[in-house]
Amino acid sequence: MTDSLPLDRPSPSSDGRTLEAWEVFRQEKEGDPMRHGGSVMAPDAELAVHYARELYGRRQESVRLWVVRRADVHELEDPDLLQPPLDRSFKKPGGYVMREKLAAARERSGQAKPKARSK
Question: Please, what is the average pLDDT of the chain?
């Protein structure tokens, strides 16, 4: 058994202040997406920014940092919000697959597939 607390729970620092987990997102160069770089433990936002700058910015490996309190990050797991209920395949590069839809419509109507035209 260990005496340490999990990283997502505040823990007291040596001076009695409570340490919180802060997530750091970084951008390597202008135009790149922000990516999760890691986390730092700090008692407040000012020190979290300082620690993040030291860990992810001092070697000019990042052009932008976002520092967010872990408690303020919300997870979305609802499949209805993540998977749209409507068929939006027309927005994808492949578009609709018409062969399958036409074959299903012909089958429902009882019509045979028309013969290919000869030139």
Answer: 80
